[in-house]
Amino acid sequence: MSSSRQPVYTEKTKCRDCYKCVRYCPVKAIKVEENSARIIDDLCIYCGRCVEICPTHAKKVRNDVPEVKKLIRSGRKVVLSLAPSWTTGVFGSREELIAAFRGLGFCAVSETALGAELVSSWTSEQLEREPGLMISSACPTVNELFRKYYPQFIDSLSRAPSPLEAHALFLKRLMGERIAVVFAGPCIAKKLEADNRDSEIDFALTFDEMSGWLGERSLTAATPRSFETEDLDFYPCQAVSGSLYAMEGGMIRSLGDMSRSPDRTMVPLSGMTHIMEALDEMDGRDGMMLELLSCPGGCVNGSGFKNRGNQFAYRKKSLIHFEKALAGSISSSPVLEAAESMNLQLPLKSFIRASAHREASFTDELIEEALYELGKEKEEDRLDCGGCGYNSCRDFAVAYLKKMGEKPMCVTNMRKRAQKKVDMLLRTLPMGVVIVNRRHQIVECNKGFASLFADPETICDEEYAKRHSDLPLINFVDLTSCLTDILSGRKSIFEERLKINGKFLKITFFSIDKGHLAGVIIQDITTTSVKREDVIRKAEEVISKNLQNVQQIASLLGENAAETEIILRSLTDQFQFTAAEGNL
Ligand code: SF4
Ligand code: SF4
């Protein structure tokens, strides 16, 4: 085991709970908790789909390059087992890539396809001996699928070791047990194989990790002078038919004559959705050889290489490579001869069933209860929209019962609830409220708004809102310049006091969604203002009525009359001043 972390994991802080990974995960191994989607290792089959599609790159593949560097620095001989997908040309020509990888410190580069040829040979013999269903076990993701979700077929899985295990075994027999073997390929799930304590493989790197490492050393497709031409060949020989394993149907083709057996149908299938559909239909009694690869089209489309290109071009290059290798080879498989001469026997693999996760079932009654809790009591609420990541509301309810999902995942239900809250708030607020869009059209308004600008007696607020939504606000009241300040982003909240249609209004403008939605709260403060105006008017009356008398007896009263006038004047001035300031 190379690290405490699993081959695929979630970087929690990067998750933005969009549920895209839940939607794409073929086995729904992702649990959403506290608005974050994390992988449940016991359920994951390491297909890498979530890594490919996560828009925020919160799903990560464990980086084992530092461990491999340490291994090389330790002085042990480290051989690179290179996946058949190299034939797609992603790292340049054979000489270029061998030179580049040797430049990283690997003592030799050998093709994993040699191990594939050993596996094909074993499989051919087995097919001759045993009738019935046989399922290839070369893809670690497919093996995990069987262990965790289709244990009923586990006895039909081929017991041959994986091509990588067979290759590592062959290399160790050839070079001594002390060597270390590191795999490089487009496969994320191979890390799982390397993590196995009994494995012959020390580490598995993806092509992405290799690219990154080469990039650090500026070794891409360069041929360092220090290598002689003979060093720039695969060790100990070049593979032939094993290179076909990278493509759907390649393994079956590599079986040679056995691939045309009249007693057995040979079915290649790739892509997890197709595989699961097929397994759901199968009864296990068919006389069939199933070649299953998790990645659509095969390993040439593996998710451990995100810059992969045109699949047609890859397949074409790989097939041309195979034809050339076949034409240039003196033997159909030099590795078989070598294995025979060293009397190499492949150890048989056995698969351990994981607890069958599909078995967790709930009664219809329980599912109905969960649907009710999720706000889906009525049939028309069950939209099966897939927004939560599950195919149907029922599937989501089951996930909820399994504690794999939480209520906020249903966006439609959340929106409905939020709308109810907004409606309730709008209905109960005593002041007028209106929400407008960037075109200053009414999106929502309440009865308070109606009572200020329409006839509130004849309309209920819901009808009013419906009837008036999308109408320009200016049809009722002109707040254009203030709304422009908010919607343009110049201001986020401010207050104005305006006199409209004879009413004194205290109006608060605020931004809801910058550039898109603005809210307006309108309070009628006419009564307070009228009282204030009354005070001013009455004070003026007192002043004017008494002014003459005051002037006449001013000489008698002296300074006291002047003080009375000053007080009254300052009172009216103050009221007028504050009114003019807008502080009504
Ligand atoms: S790696 Fe595959 S199985 Fe695992 S969580 Fe991601 S999508 Fe699901
Ligand atoms: S199809 Fe190939 S690359 Fe994809 S998971 Fe299986 S073995 Fe790995």
UniProtKB/TrEMBL annotation:
GO terms for molecular function: 4 iron, 4 sulfur cluster binding; metal ion binding. It holds the Pfam family Fe_hyd_lg_C. Transmembrane segments: none annotated. Residues 6-34, 35-64 form the 4Fe-4S ferredoxin-type domain. Coiled coil: none annotated. Residues 362-427 form the 4Fe-4S domain. Keywords: 4Fe-4S, Iron, Iron-sulfur, Metal-binding. The keyword rRNA processing does not apply. SUPFAM superfamilies: 4Fe-4S ferredoxins, Fe-only hydrogenase. InterPro entries: 4Fe-4S_dom, 4Fe4S_Fe-S-bd, 4Fe4S_Fe_S_CS, Cytosolic_Fe-S_CAF, Fe_hydrogenase, Fe_hydrogenase_lsu_C. PANTHER family: NITRATE, FORMATE, IRON DEHYDROGENASE (PTHR11615). This is Iron only hydrogenase large subunit-like protein. It comes from Spirochaeta isovalerica. The lineage of its organism: Bacteria, Pseudomonadati, Spirochaetota, Spirochaetia, Spirochaetales.
